[in-house]
Amino acid sequence: MSFSVMTIVRGRRNHLWNQGRSITESHRKPDQWIIVGMDEDVDPPSIPGVDVVIDRVNGDGERLPLAEARNRAADRCSTETMVFLDVDCIASPTLFPTMVDTVQQAGGLWMGDVRYLPKGATTDHWTMNDLMPLSVRHPLQPKLITDRQPSQDYHLFWSLCFGISREAFETIGGFDTGYEGYGGEDTDFAFTARRAGVPFGFVAAVAFHQHHPVCKPPLNHFSQIVSNAERFRRKWDVWPMESWLRAFAERDLIRFDPGSDQIDVLRCPSKDEVAATVIDSPAGF
Q1: Which listed site, 18, 41, 46, 202, has its alpha carbon 20 to 30 Å from 246?
Q2: pLDDT tens, 169-216?
Q3: Where in the sequence is the domain holding 158, given as residue range(s)?
Q4: Which residues form the Glycosyltransferase 2-like prokaryotic type domain (predicted)?
Q5: Do 193 and 233 share a domain, yes or no?
Q6: Cα-based distances in Å from 190 to 18, 33, 151, 156, 196
């Protein structure tokens, strides 16, 4: 059955090429690999038998136009089944057949099983067999009891690896481009899916997340998280990313009252403060 893989990217060329290599090793190859560069042109590897589609969206050069890029990828898709795969993700050989069969048989929105790799795992001559023993689960994501696990926990949706039909994507209306940059746009997508009656669940379709440094809390996205959180609150009457907002408040960067509809920004973090939050663990946990 036909399907397309959609990847959005800024930088991370080595990660993109590793993802391309994993597509060549997949037990089922996509009809299309759609790659949308954010504020940049991309140079992906060619894959025999796969139509590699390249596009670009432009933002302000700083905030990642994540929602717009994902919507553009969907616009370029010519198949009814779509698998969105973050550029940091390497597809296990069984990811695509497992995800595609689930979407085509059950419909709805399905999040894959993302495992996180330590630094150096994919920098040399890695093989697919090396990755599973090195990878770890994220503690905030459920351990799957069955291969397909329907769920009402829409708030646990992350856009790193998910499958969806074109019909469901259009029912949701795509990603809300009112979210600018990092933070909240994927939770908004899931909440909109719930409101639209699109079923959600987790599926044992394994992807391996390649290492990159992260900030904990993400002070490097401070302004975007604050503005996106306020947008989310106005739209859904709940605060997203609350642990991050509380961490910002503990650093006297904001005044955050969960009962209020706005956040008072006291100051922006300094470069030194941002640098001090960089950690090197596999997934920032």
Answers
A1: 202
A2: 999 999 999 998 889 999 999 999 999 999 999 999 999 999 988 899
A3: 3-212
A4: 65-189
A5: no
A6: 28, 24, 12, 9, 10
Q: Which of 170, 187, 212 is the last residue of a domain?
A: 212
**Are 90 and 112 found together in one domain?**
yes
Encoding tokens for residue 101? 């069969």
In-domain check, residue 284: no
How do residues 223-277 score in pLDDT, each as one tens digit? 999 999 999 999 999 999 999 999 999 999 999 999 988 899 999 999 999 999 9
CA distance between the termini of the chain: 37
Tokens coding 16: 């993109």
Q: Parallel, antiparallel, or unpaired for β 136-137 and 81-85? A: unpaired
Q: Long-range contact list for 96-101, CB < 8 A, 24+ apart? A: 96/3, 96/5, 96/26, 96/27, 96/28, 96/29, 96/30, 96/205, 97/26, 97/27, 97/28, 98/147, 98/203, 98/204, 98/205, 99/161, 99/163, 99/203, 99/205, 100/1, 100/3, 100/28, 100/163, 101/1
Q: SS3 for 94?
A: coil
Q: Please tell me the distance from the alpha carbon of residue 205 to that of residue 278, in angstroms, as a whole number.
A: 29
The domain boundary, picked from 197, 212, 227, lies at 212
- With beta carbons less than 8 A apart as the criterion, state whether 48 and 21 touch: no
Instruction: Give how far the C-alpha of residue 199 lies from the chain's centroid of Cα atoms, to the nearest Å.
Output: 19
